[in-house]
Amino acid sequence: MSNAREVNFDGLIGPSHNYGGMSQGNLASATNAGDVSNPREAALQGLEKMRLLVKAGLTQGILPPLPRPNFDLLVSAGFGGSDAEIIEKAAREAPRLLKAAYSASSMWAANAATVSPSADSVDGRLHLTSANLSTMLHRSTEHPDTTASLVSIFENEERFAIHGALPMHADFADEGAANHVRLCAEHGREGVELFVYGREAGESTAGFPARQTKLASESIARSHRLSSQRTVLARQARVAIEAGAFHNDVVCVGALDTLFFHEFAFEDTEATLEAIRKAAESLFELKPVMVPEAEVPIGDAITSYLFNSQLLQWPGEDRLVLLAPMETQETESTRIFCEKMVSGNGPIGRVQYVDVRQSMRNGGGPACLRLRVVMSDEEIAAVHQGVMLNETKIDALQDIIRRTYRDRLTAADLADPTFASECQLAREALLEELELSGLV
After folding, report:
1. Distance in angstroms (rounded) separating the CA atoms of residues 414 and 43
2. From 17, 143, 224, 247, the catalytic residue
3. What SS3 class is residue 311?
4. Hey, how many other C-beta atoms are within 10 angstroms of the C-beta on 229?
5. Do 327 and 366 meet the contact criterion of CB atoms below 8 Å apart?
6. pLDDT on residue 359
7. Dist CA 142 CA 112 (whole Å)
8. Choice among 6, 41, 142, 175 that is catalytic
9. Which one of 262, 368, 379, 423 is the catalytic residue?
10. pLDDT tens-digit map of 411-435
11. Is 93 an active-site residue?
C-alpha cells in the first residue's frame, strides 16, 4: 500500500453546541458549564482548521453532526406527545436529560471509532469499530447514528469493515481512537497499534472515571484482525486521569515513528516504550519525545491541550508539524517547551497554532475534532465522495452554517421547541450538501 496517506475526517460541529458541563473528569467542560456558547463560531472555526489542511495539500474528510435533539432518548425516559410537548415536558421535569439529548459531542470525531488500516489487518480491509462511549450518558446514545454515518461513508464492503459498538456494559467501555495510536515507518506499510486503557474489566476506580477498559481494547484488536506481535496494550497513568486526562490523547499523540507524550502518560513508561520497540522490530525505530513533568506540569499539559494536537506529516517539510490550539501558545510552560523542541533536531520541526476556542472550552482540542484514517488512493476513491473536502465545499458548508446556526445559545434556549426544528433543518441542509440525505 505504497500510495497510502493519512486522511483526517473531522466532526462537523452541530447547531446545538452548548456548554452543558456533563462530562465528569473533563475539567474544561466543568469549568465552562452554563456559559453562553456560539454554535456558529464553533462550526466555522472547525471548518477553518480543515481548510488549513486542505490548502496545505493534505486530504480532508468530514463527518456530519448527529440528529439533535435525540428524541429516542427522551421517549425512552417516558416523555410522549408531539415533538414540542416532549421538549416542554423534559425541560420542566428533567432539564439535565434534555441537555443530554441536545449534546453536540459527536463533534469530537476522535471518539467516533477506532480505525485500523488495511496494511495492519490479516484480511487486508480497513476496519472501523464505533465506540460505545458507555461511561457518559450524553455520549452513550451516539453510536447507532455514528455507525449509520460510517456505513454510508465507507460503503464498499470489499475494502471496508464497519463493526458496531461493543456491548453497553462497563467491562466493555470504549472511547474510540482517543485511546489508540498507530505508529509506522510509512503510512502504507505495516505498523504497530498502541491501545491505552485506564482499567481492567470489573475493576472499579475512585475519583474520575477511567473510561477505557483493557477488555474493550483487546476486543477491538481481535475484531480488526490485527497481529498480536504488532499490537501493544498499555495502561494509562492514574495520576493523569485524576489530573483531568479523561482520554489518553490528552497526554499523548503519535504519528509515523514518533510518539510525543507526557512523563505521566503511562503507568509504566519504560515498559510501554520497550513493548512498542519490540513490536516495531524490523519495521521502524521508535522516536520517543517525552515531555518532563519538571518542564511542563501535568496540569499545564491538560489545560493547554499540548498533546491534544494533530501531529502531521506536512507536505514539503522534512519533520513533523504539531497543529496545536492557541491555548498551548498562551500557556508559558508549553510555549517554552515547544520553542525549545523545534529548535533542536528532533522529529517535530514546527508548531502551528489554530483557534478552536469554542471546542476547547468544552474540553476538546484539534486532535479531538478528527478521526485519522490511513487510506490508499483506491480506498479514498471507494469512499462516499460527498464528504471529501475542497475549498469550494468548505465555502458551501460555511454558507449553510452562517444561515442556519445561532451565534448565541444558552441552556434556557434548549427548552424552546422551535430550536429543535432549527437544528433539524440545519442538519438537513448540511446532509444535502454532503450528499448524505439518506441519513435524515
Report:
1. 18
2. 247
3. strand
4. 10
5. no
6. 85
7. 8
8. 175
9. 368
10. 899 999 999 999 999 999 999 999 9
11. no
